TrEMBL record:
InterPro entries: SET_dom_sf. The lineage of its organism: Eukaryota, Viridiplantae, Streptophyta, Embryophyta, Tracheophyta. It comes from the Eukaryota. This is Uncharacterized protein.
Length: 196
């Protein structure tokens, strides 16, 4: 149906097939149900931005797999389909940008302080904390990220771990407490460090 809406004639059918991933049949059937017309389901029952992106991304994935095994005759059609789907994803992103769903009236001061503390100790991030409509608190990109960009980099030296606690003066005292878990020791040490 998508090919027909983009001007391809019905005799140019190409079946996207893939057996390299378990559940590929379910993914294909879900795509067909999602984009199906008629009484299969009403548009509001199955529509959500997440479903839309997952469906479009699944088509790109199936197209990529099919491109790796198709005949030369079908290559141009599959490449055209792939570009069309990528355009749809881009248009969807433009229409449903993050700015519309980020709640402006929520403060994230404590989280921003944590990020600043991490950055002053060597962490690097391309993310910021925000309250997102329908998802509560989360992280969003500060700028457009490309595939392969590093969104968050934390040096091993600032990761709080049980091994780090063994090197502190507080560990000797805390390990004497009967039945105390390592998680509780980490929590107590973190609380002490916060007020240091």
């Amino acid at each position: 149906k998508l090919l027909q809406s983009k001007g391809f004639s019905p005799k140019e059918w190409i079946y996207l097939k893939c057996s390299s991933k378990l559940g590929w049949m379910n993914a294909t059937v879900e795509l067909e149900l999602y984009f199906a017309e008629g009484d299969v389901c009403t548009s509001m029952e199955s529509y959500s931005p997440r479903n839309e992106l997952e469906a479009l991304n699944s088509i790109v994935w199936l197209t990529d797999v099919s491109l790796s095994t198709c005949t030369h005759l079908h290559t141009n059609i599959l490449q055209g389909l792939r570009l069309t789907i990528l355009d749809l994803i881009s248009d969807f992103g433009d229409k449903n940008g993050v700015n519309e769903v980020v709640k402006k009236n929520h403060s994230c001061d404590q989280e921003e302080c944590l990020i600043e503390s991490g950055e002053s100790n060597g962490a690097m991030t391309q993310l910021k904390i925000a309250y997102i409509e329908g998802a509560d608190q989360g992280a969003i990109a500060r700028k457009d990220l490309k595939v392969g960009d590093v969104a968050l980099e934390i040096p091993v030296s600032i990761i709080i771990s049980e091994e780090l606690l063994h090197e502190t003066d507080m560990y000797g005292v805390l390990k004497e407490i009967d039945g105390i878990s390592s998680e509780t020791i980490l929590l107590l040490w973190s609380m002490k460090e916060k007020y240091k």
